[in-house]
Amino acid sequence: MSATGEVSGSARRGRRVILWRHGQTSWNVERRFQGSTDVELTETGIAQARRSARLLAGLGPDAIVASDLKRAAATAAELAALTGLDVTFDEALRETYAGVWQGLTHDEIIATYGDEYTAWKRGEPVRRGGGELETEVADRAAPVVLRHAEKLPEDGTLVVVSHGGTIRTTIGRLLGLQPQNWESLGGLTNCCWSVLGEGARGWRLLEHNAGTLPEPVLGDDD
Q1: What is the CATH number of the domain that holds 89?
Q2: What are the angstrom distances between the C-alpha of 147 and each of 135, 143, 177?
Q3: Would you call 106 a catalytic residue per the annotation?
Q4: Catalytic hit among 95, 116, 132, 134
Q5: Of residues 22, 148, 163, 208, which has the active-site annotation?
Q6: Is 95 in the active site?
Q7: 27 annotated to bind ligand
Q8: What domain range is 102 assigned to?
Q9: Is residue 50 scored above 60 in pLDDT?
């Protein structure tokens, strides 16, 4: 920093974490809750992953870590093919397990579990479908992200390929937000991403739902 308090051009940028949601699946289109169900990408989803991978490759990532579910793994493979990086898979980056909600459409969930759904949207701790709490998802996913971020070179970039709900809870945890406020982050469109930057007081949200013009968010928590 100069005597005037301005940051010089050579100042450290800090590490970056790019949290990238997988491409479209048929269940996304049907607004069917996937959770930990292992659903593959559609042809559109593959095309989304290829397009986004070309953009992300331009950022010069240093490492890729991904959920081991097929939709995330296939998305990560597109970036790996362009960068030559290996993908490290970790089941802790899977989407929220949502019990009996998994496989149901949005309308079916509202019709059968409306009170539970409304309580969750209010920010209450709810085991949707008898599955995981959002805080439990953050408990397993956020440490994985931090562990891999710590391995980065100075000013390095990590790409995390995961799922809408897991990404939101991880961002909330890393930013130090209260769990009842995590929903305020909003959803990620298929194959869009959010960027966290390393700052003097911890992680900062630099971009959210980036990568395309605004599009509808389909099946965010899957």
Answers
A1: 3.40.50.1240
A2: 18, 6, 20
A3: no
A4: 95
A5: 22
A6: yes
A7: yes
A8: 16-210
A9: yes
